[in-house]
Amino acid sequence: MTGEGLYLDGVTVVFDGFRALNTLSLLVAPGELRAVIGPNGAGKTTMMDVITGKTRPVSGIARFDGHDLTRMEESVIANLGIGRKFQKPTVFDALTVFENLELALKAPRGPVACLRWRLSGAARSAIERTAEQVGLAERASDPAGRLSHGQRQWLEIGMLLMQDPKLVLVDEPVAGMTDHETAETARLLVGIAGERSVVVVEHDLDFVRALGCRVTVLHEGTMLSEGSIDHVQADPRVVEVYLGR
Ligand code: ADP
């Protein structure tokens, strides 16, 4: 049970005596797309923080591909191939889509490598492939500042992909998007899973339904229900604490 993929078992996080996570267990297989939903304060952000090493649990196991995440620095965890996309995009408006993707490829190599950087044919192909994958191939030469809100979110997902992560954590990607952008985002995330695991925290249940994946419902820091969207939406415990409010 501690081999490939993401494995949380009995994870407990305490803030000033309050249990933000309370014996949370979660298993996400390599290549799996998983949605995590739950009311405000359920512990979704804290769960992501444990996975990226930002927050340390007081007890429980958190492993990725067999590595113990509870003992590692954030930078070491990032090097394991875990990438996180926060809600607010951090793209560079003055740079083009292509340049943003190029920066995401070269920046983690450090300042010296950046100064010596020359765009190779292989790097160009990787950037073009990613631009295509996130639906921005036609916008590659446009400054990121001219993109719509949704397109900026996709660019940031593309920037994460430039690091070829094994696990992508995505925080509320469709907040503020149009219906069309929301549908495209579902398509994009389904497309990038398979090659890597993707965990999406989201409030929008129509979007979660469009993902067509297994859903984990958190409540009071623990797993309340898990299964298809139909299964969890019909679960009386979920209806009571979340959907029925
Ligand atoms: P969600 O992302 O599902 O809304 P969070 O993980 O942000 O939930 O929060 C879970 C609970 O932990 C909330 O009650 C929140 O107030 C509390 N919490 C989160 N971070 C801290 C912190 N740094 N200090 C104290 N309490 C916190």
From TrEMBL:
<dbReference type="InterPro" id="IPR027417">
    <property type="entry name" value="P-loop_NTPase"/>
</dbReference>
<keyword id="KW-0547">Nucleotide-binding</keyword>
<feature type="domain" description="ABC transporter">
    <location>
        <begin position="6"/>
        <end position="245"/>
    </location>
</feature>
<protein>
    <submittedName>
        <fullName>Urea ABC transporter ATP-binding protein UrtD</fullName>
    </submittedName>
</protein>
<keyword id="KW-0813">Transport</keyword>
<dbReference type="InterPro" id="IPR017781">
    <property type="entry name" value="ABC_transptr_urea_ATP-bd_UrtD"/>
</dbReference>
<dbReference type="Pfam" id="PF00005">
    <property type="entry name" value="ABC_tran"/>
</dbReference>
<keyword id="KW-0067">ATP-binding</keyword>
<dbReference type="InterPro" id="IPR051120">
    <property type="entry name" value="ABC_AA/LPS_Transport"/>
</dbReference>
<dbReference type="InterPro" id="IPR003439">
    <property type="entry name" value="ABC_transporter-like_ATP-bd"/>
</dbReference>
<dbReference type="GO" id="GO:0005524">
    <property type="term" value="F:ATP binding"/>
</dbReference>
